[in-house]
UniProtKB/TrEMBL annotation:
<keyword id="KW-0863">Zinc-finger</keyword>
<feature type="repeat" description="ANK">
    <location>
        <begin position="177"/>
        <end position="209"/>
    </location>
</feature>
<dbReference type="GO" id="GO:0000976">
    <property type="term" value="F:transcription cis-regulatory region binding"/>
</dbReference>
<dbReference type="InterPro" id="IPR017907">
    <property type="entry name" value="Znf_RING_CS"/>
</dbReference>
<dbReference type="GO" id="GO:0061630">
    <property type="term" value="F:ubiquitin protein ligase activity"/>
</dbReference>
<dbReference type="Pfam" id="PF00023">
    <property type="entry name" value="Ank"/>
</dbReference>
<keyword id="KW-0862">Zinc</keyword>
<keyword id="KW-0677">Repeat</keyword>
<protein>
    <recommendedName>
        <fullName>RING-type E3 ubiquitin transferase</fullName>
        <ecNumber>2.3.2.27</ecNumber>
    </recommendedName>
</protein>
<feature type="region of interest" description="Disordered">
    <location>
        <begin position="466"/>
        <end position="494"/>
    </location>
</feature>
<dbReference type="GO" id="GO:0016567">
    <property type="term" value="P:protein ubiquitination"/>
</dbReference>
<feature type="repeat" description="ANK">
    <location>
        <begin position="220"/>
        <end position="246"/>
    </location>
</feature>
<dbReference type="InterPro" id="IPR036770">
    <property type="entry name" value="Ankyrin_rpt-contain_sf"/>
</dbReference>
<feature type="domain" description="RING-type">
    <location>
        <begin position="319"/>
        <end position="380"/>
    </location>
</feature>
<dbReference type="GO" id="GO:0045944">
    <property type="term" value="P:positive regulation of transcription by RNA polymerase II"/>
</dbReference>
<keyword id="KW-0479">Metal-binding</keyword>
<feature type="repeat" description="ANK">
    <location>
        <begin position="44"/>
        <end position="76"/>
    </location>
</feature>
Length: 521
């Protein structure tokens, strides 16, 4: 739905309600005109869904999606609501967006960042767990069975390899300059994220490209160990070395990880990163944030919904966790007598409690179980998956058509739900925007720019496109106010975090500032 004069005022009211978390106002506006859920602002093309996701208003996000908001809509920078939620670590919003089948593999227009990059650079490990849920349909469990019972020669091995291949491609997807999520998590010292990404088959030997925006700070051809040496986190360097990283890898500047550590003043890493080091590297277990049953309970929630009946049926029991809703799923997993087989305690929960348990639990179970199993809240035995009980009702499908089909490109809109007048309005709105802003980052490489050492701690990073910012914003002081407002929201940052933000922000600061200034107003 477009920004016509008839819905502009109401659309701005909905934007304000979504940003401020006013659920009553948002519900009233959507009851009067459900098409307002597809409204977008004139400047940054941010929808109310972008504002609600960035601020963490989960109830408003669900309300907008139920009223037909496009879960994969992009703003001026090509960022989706999922990217905004992952940027600020609102895992509940990420969970809701996944229930409406959002596209987790989409990249923005500025630097090719996916939601996984936004989560890794800010250390939101729960968001990473949710993002990879659909790529981890219990392959570690099947691999464990193959190791114990031997190869059976059926199609499970082939399916397992295909699932792991899709997971590896998603986790190792490179943004501008070849930076993967592992690079950014290692740079910022987020050990939990690094450990989880390595368990998800992240490439420890991935190198950055010879073009991009971060090459002059660390060097092109750098591995995650080079980035961890720059960040200075000891545990990140240790786990990378334990998982196969090499101390002897040279980047395009001829620097070892040891040289990068010395240039950035990380002298405590020299004994560990020395080429002939005999330092003992500790062994690290699998990440506690890996959740095998998350995929199964997500699929059940998509099919049946989260609204289980609160009044117990004749043959249904009340959930022992919340004591409110009817049990709708049963746990499968390990037990003290039958380890590594798909039956275990069998305790029943409601789908909402099961989904919350899989999204938040990072405590290992008490018994020997495959990595990624979560402890049952009733008996502490490992849970590998959930199955739907026969009494679970099937949810009425109120989802928007775009949730089940691929969302078309903004340059070629095709909204099957809207009548022809609405389609004309949307076409007019999109046509009024210059098509050059929709050019993806892969169309042409961006030349490397010489960037001095980061001085972010003394003030906001300067913009290399101040002239363009003034023309777009209409005031040369808007970019400064945007940086100040963003600092107030994100709070104080460490030096390495601001350096990585400088890596990302050099391509086109003015575009992202224009989008973020609306959300953070």
């Amino acid at each position: 739905m477009g920004n016509s004069f008839g819905c502009s005022a109401s659309g701005e009211r909905l934007v304000s309600a979504a940003r401020d978390g006013d659920l009553v106002e948002a519900k009233m506006l959507l009851d009067c005109n459900p098409c307002l859920a597809k409204y977008s602002t004139f400047g940054g093309l941010n929808s109310p869904l972008h504002f609600a996701a960035a601020k963490g208003h989960n109830e408003i996000v669900a309300l907008l999606l139920e009223n037909g908001a496009d879960v994969n809509s992009r703003n001026y920078c090509g960022q989706t609501a999922l990217m905004q939620a992952c940027r600020y670590g609102h895992w509940e919003v990420v969970q809701t967006l996944l229930l409406f089948r959002c596209n987790v593999t989409r990249a923005d227009y500025l630097s090719g960042r996916t939601a996984l990059h936004f989560s890794a650079v800010n250390g939101h490990v729960r968001c990473i767990t949710l993002l990879v849920a659909d790529f981890v349909p219990n392959p570690p469990f099947e691999a464990m069975n193959n190791q114990i019972e031997g190869e059976k020669g059926d199609g499970s091995t082939v399916r397992n390899k295909n699932d792991q291949s899709a997971l590896s491609k998603f986790v190792n997807k490179a943004a501008d300059g070849g930076n993967t999520a592992l690079h950014m998590a290692a740079l910022n010292g987020h050990f939990d994220c690094v450990q989880l990404l390595l368990d998800l088959h992240a490439n420890v030997s991935a190198v950055t490209f010879h073009y991009g925006t971060s090459m002059d700070l660390i060097g092109a051809g750098s591995t995650p160990l080079h980035y961890a040496a720059c960040g200075g986190n000891l545990k990140c360097c240790q786990i990378l070395l334990a998982r196969g990283a090499s101390r002897l890898t040279l980047n395009c500047n001829g620097w070892l990880p040891l040289d990068v550590a010395r240039m950035w003043g990380r002298h405590w890493l020299e004994p560990l990163l020395a080429p002939n080091s005999d330092t003992t590297i500790p062994r690290f277990p699998s990440s506690n944030y890996l959740s095998l049953p998350l995929s199964s309970v997500l699929n059940i929630a998509r099919e049946c919904g989260l609204q289980s009946p609160t009044t117990p049926l004749d043959d249904a029991d009340t959930c022992a966790v919340c004591l409110e809703r009817v049990c709708s799923v049963a746990a499968e997993g390990t037990s003290s007598t039958c380890c590594f087989h798909k039956f275990g305690c069998g305790h029943e929960l409601c789908v909402r409690c099961a989904l919350y348990l899989c999204s938040t639990s990072h405590i290992p179970s008490n018994i020997v179980a495959p990595p990624g199993s979560i402890p049952c809240p009733l008996c502490r035995h490992g849970i590998l998956s959930f199955v739907k009980l026969p009494i679970s009702p099937v949810k009425e499908n109120r989802l928007h058509v775009s949730l089940g089909l691929c969302t078309p490109c903004m340059l070629h809109p095709c909204d099957v739900d809207c009548p022809s007048p609405a389609s004309e309005i949307r076409n007019n709105r999109v046509a009024s925007v210059s098509s050059d802003i929709f050019c993806p980052v892969t169309c042409s490489p961006f030349p490397s720019v010489a960037i001095p050492l980061c001085t972010c701690n003394d003030g906001p990073c300067p913009s290399f496109e101040s002239g363009e910012t003034e023309m777009q914003d209409g005031s040369p002081r808007r970019s400064q106010s945007t940086s100040i407002e963003q600092d107030k929201i994100e709070g104080p940052r460490l030096e390495r975090t601001t350096c990585s933000n400088m890596f990302w922000g050099r391509r086109s600061c003015s575009r992202e500032h224009q989008c973020n200034s609306e959300i953070n107003a």
